[in-house]
Amino acid sequence: MLEMVDLSKKLAKTEFKKQMPELERRLNELQRQMKDLGIPTILVFEGLEAAGKGTAINQLMLPLDPRGFKVHPIHPPNEEEAMRPFLVRFWNKLPGRGRVAIFDHSWYNRVLGERIDKEVPRKGWERAFEEILAFERQLTDDGAVVVKFWLHISRKEQRKRFKAIEKNPSLSWKVGKDDWKQHEQYGKYIRAAEEMMERTNTPAAPWVVVEGHDKQYALVKIFETLVETWSAAVERKKAQKAAGKGAFTQLPGRNITVLSGLDLSKKCDKDEYDKQIDECQERLRDLEHEIYVRRIPVVICYEGCDAAGKGGNIKRVTEKLDPRGYEVIPIAAPTKEELDHHYLWRFARAIPKAGHITIFDRTWYGRVLVERIEGFCSTEAWQRAYREINEFEAHLANYGTVIVKFWLHIDQDEQMKRFKDRQETPWKQWKITDEDWRNREKWPQYEVAINDMLANCSTSYAPWTIIEANDKYFARLKALKTVISAIEAKL
Q1: pLDDT by residue (tens digit) across 123-179?
Q2: What pLDDT was estimated at residue 249?
Q3: Which of 52, 69, 177, 283 is exposed most, by the fewest CB atoms within 10 A?
Q4: What are phi and psi of 266, to 5 degrees?
Q5: What pLDDT does residue 244 have?
């Protein structure tokens, strides 16, 4: 494909000077509209070294409001970044709504440089294509604009530019052994780039090949592409604004009534509990040390009915662990900054590094529970979230993460008993809120949503474990034993 690119394309200097002022004015105007409409933009610049990525980015920044964009030069991952799934560091750099993120190199290094230098096995970079497609689809489905530029030059032109840079004393540091090594492997890079574009070019996140021999031609093409893309995004957003948010809807034919078949009478007597809890906690503490040595990350997710005992359950799981090896993340209503990003953004930022444990007290499943029922997102958004969550968890699992997900379930009578106990016990009153009572009134709707969640998001790599939680002793032991079994299976 790339060998057919016409690299002789040029733009006369007079024509360049004629076109650029209007393109710059238009970009500035569109940036303001994108900000007002809350549309995030992700621009990816890839290409061979010396292809002109830096020049293009610098020129693109000039007409834009510097308060609204950030440039991310991407280097090989540092030690901290390498200890998490490779896309996590890019999740952390995503722009808020109305802002622009410009990536000088990107997640595509996994299927370019890391592939060619054999830093990841074939299975790793092959799998990365699917992970990247899922990542970009999640962003564009959420309303982000994603444009990916490949700046192309010939092998002869790259050599010519390297030589020119080396002759300039103030710039010679820019060309090193790795650059010349890439030049020697020019054919391999081009073949990898062609496969990359073939496999990841989508209507929502397209690749734009920029003929890079003539810098003036390349700049005008980049500017025109962005003007066209932003113009279309603005018109699309304006048309969508009248649609409003979706109300509670049941997925037709997908609801499996898992909860109705639970035996909530399961119990554990106090003597047996006292005997087993110590054994389980000591075993989990030993496993915490093993996963640290083996660099295995563990994610434990807690969801459940109000007053189901999540807090007490988490306390027993962590009671004898080394606090340096785990973290508990309590999830509340999203902040303004979190609302400005994709809903998975705040969870990606909390993913544990290899060898550590993160426990989420409520999770990304809020999208298909409270957000669905309260109408905080559209029907399309929460229905789409089942696939997005499965893809997100698959990315963690592919890295080697142990994922344990608990749904703690109690019946309505037990919930009422616990609500009243909280109201009548002074030191427990903080645990009961008006929201708990409102949620109780929506028990039938929540039951439908929970069943949908369990049916759509229990996978081989991240299965749901339902815990019968009417009896707290039984629930705590079952949770501990499930975590232990999952880690032992991984080891």
Answers
A1: 999 999 999 999 999 999 999 999 999 999 999 999 999 999 999 999 999 999 999
A2: 44
A3: 177
A4: -60, 135
A5: 59
Range list of H helices, 47-107: 53-61, 79-82, 88-91
> DSSP of 90-110, one letter per residue?
HHTTPPPTT-EEEEES-GGGG
The secondary element (H helix, E strand) that includes residue 303 is strand 298-304
- Cα 470 to the chain's mean position, in Å? 35
Q: Decide which of 183, 212, 243 is a domain's last residue.
A: 243
Same domain for 317 and 394, yes or no, is yes
Q: Taking residues 307-329, report their average pLDDT.
A: 97
Q: Which residue has tokens 């975590």? A: 483
What residue type is assigned to position 165 of the chain?
I
Domain that holds residue 19: 2-243
Residue 208 phi, psi dihedral angles, 5° rounding: -120, 115
pLDDT at position 179: 94
Those residues whose C-beta lies under 8 Å from the C-beta of residue 467, and which sit 6 or more positions away, are 304, 313, 406, 407, 408, 409, 475, 478, 479
Query: What backbone phi and psi angles, to 5 degrees, belong to 272?
Result: -65, -40
Residue linked to tokens 């090949």: 209
